[in-house]
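We modelled the chain as a single entity of 335 amino acids. Its sequence is:
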Amino acid sequence: MTKDRLIIIAIPVICGLTAANMYYIQPLFLMISQSIGITYIQSTNLFTAQLIGNVLSLIFFIPVADVIDRRKIIGALYLCLCTGLFLVYFSTNFNILIGGYALIGVGASSVPLIIAFYNKEKKHENIIGYIMGGVLLGIIGSRFASGILSNFLGWRGIYIVSFFLMLLGASFVLKNMKPNSDNKEKNISYLNVIRSNIMATLEDRSVRLYCFYGFATMFSFTAFWTNIATYLDQSLDFSTTEIALFSLLGVLGALVAIYAPVITGSIFKTSLRLFMTGIALLACAIALPNSLIWLGGFTALFDALIQLIHVSNQKKLYSRSKGKEGGLKLQVQRY
């Protein structure tokens, strides 16, 4: 196998496994609350801590990759991720646990930087769809993996397994990533990087629109999968294994990323069409009968649409960045 072929296969897998760390917890809320003696609401706050860590990292940490070597940032993020996984596995109280989950959220933000790097590599021009497919497969597969492994290793087991996988993944990514020394801006301060990021968003309507599409779809996606385990458990009396198996329906939707360029180019030529289709799909889901068959079909279609929107948004936003994927001096090309 050639090196380029290995990268095309390995990078989507690594990105998928990295993103999966954010979602291992979703089928485990009830088990965690019972295990360490906290309420169900407190256990869901652990997921909130991850999201807060992820958002803060994306806003204040990721843009720095435009002015220093991207590999250093990615290495630091994977260090945060591995530390968080370690703390979660060995945690003895809620405070340590919530700190570990926050670090996992920070570390998982390394995925956009990896995508940004390969977006500029012409010999890997089709890898973005594969990476986004790997990310969604990782998210969906994470629920299946944590649901199954929790029956054998306990709810903590998935985190120690992921700890070793992330060590291997980080080593591969850093070894095969070239330094971005050509993008260094030695006279640009950190505050200027953040200010430039904010101004690019305020000045360009298209950027704001794509950000809104991404936020709205991911909000819906996360809300759905955060609550589905509880619904299946309490309303349909599903076991942990059955919930894990149900989550595999989302894999059908994730596979659409492989064909995302063809679909978005011939059917959904704009993000607006994708977004409006998503609204129509949600409206249909509310109106449809409350049955497992309808729920399963909606899950596959919904995940497919989420994937298409994210692939479309990523490509259009990166096309504006002109080498400054972290946000510095975003170049606006109005349609």
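As a brief sanity check on the tokenised model: Residues 205-234 form the longest helix (30 residues). The chain has a mean pLDDT of 76.
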